[in-house]
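Chain entry —
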Amino acid sequence: MFLDKQLGNGCTWINLDVEIIKNLEDLSEIYGLDKETIEYALDKNERAHMDYDRENGTVTFIYNVLDLEKDKEYYEAIPLTFIVEKQRMITISNHKNAYVIDQMLTYLDSHESLSIYKFLFASLEIISNAYYPIIEKMDKSKDEVNGLLRQRTTKKNLFALSDLETGMVYLTAAAKQNRILLEHIQGHALYRRLDEIEKEQFDDAMIEAHQLVSMTDLISQVLQQLSGSYNNILNNNLNDNLTTLTIISVLLAVLAVITGFFGMNVPLPFMEDKHAWIYITLASAVLWLVLAQFLKRIAKIS
C-alpha cells in the first residue's frame, strides 16, 4: 500500500510496498534512495540493525516484525525498513507486515504535529506490542500441550511442543535483536540530538523491547525445560521396557535350557517314569518363579 502523510512541521511519512518496487533505478531517482538501502528492504532474511550515512545524515533502521501469517507450524519474524531523513521518513513494507502500517496510520490519525523520531519510536513500540497477544496465545498452548503430555506422551503432542519451542526461539532472537538495535541508538550521537519528547517516546519503546525480551526468554526457557523433562521420561520408559524384555528373555532362556536338556537323545534321569514330565514342569515353574523374583529385585535396586 502506498501512503504519503504529513506529520507536522513540514515532515512527511511515505510508505512503499515492495510489490510495486520493480525498477530500482526509478525508485532511486524519485525518492533518492540508494540501491543498497533498497536491497536491505527487499531481503526477507535481513535482521534488525541500523545504518548511518554520514554524508547526507540518512539513517536506515531494520526492525523485526512478527509475521502473523504462519507459513509453517510456528511463528517467525520478518523485517520492516525505516529510512529516516531530515524532513521525511520512508517505510518499505509488504503484505505480511502491512498490519503494522495500518496501526501506524491509526496512531498518526489520533496525534497531531508529530516529529519524525517521535513517530518512529512510537512505531517501534507498536511493533513490540503486536507480539504480546501471540506470545500469550503460545503460553496458553504450552499449558494445554503440557496437560496432554501428562496424560499421554504421543508423537502428535511432542511435535506440538517442538513447534512451540522452535517458534519461541525465533521470537526470542527477534526480540533480542530489536533490543540491541535500540541500545545501539541510545549509544549513538543521534540520541543526543533528540528533544525531551522524542527521548521520552524512545524510553517507552525501550521499556517495551526489554519487557518483550524478558517475556519471550522466560517462556522459551520453560519450553526447553519441558522438552528436556519429557525427553528424560521417554528415555526412562525405554530403559524400563528394555529391562522388562531382558528379564523375559532370561526367564525364557532358562526354560529353553531345561526342556532342551531333557530333549536330548541320551540316557537321562526319570526316563522310565511316565510322570516325569510333571516333575520337570513343576521344577521348571518353581525355578522360573524364584529367578523371576530375583531378577525383579535386581531391577528395582538398579
Observations:
- The two ends are 67 Å apart (CA to CA).
- Strands lie at 3-8, 11-17, 49-52, 59-67, 76-84, 88-93.
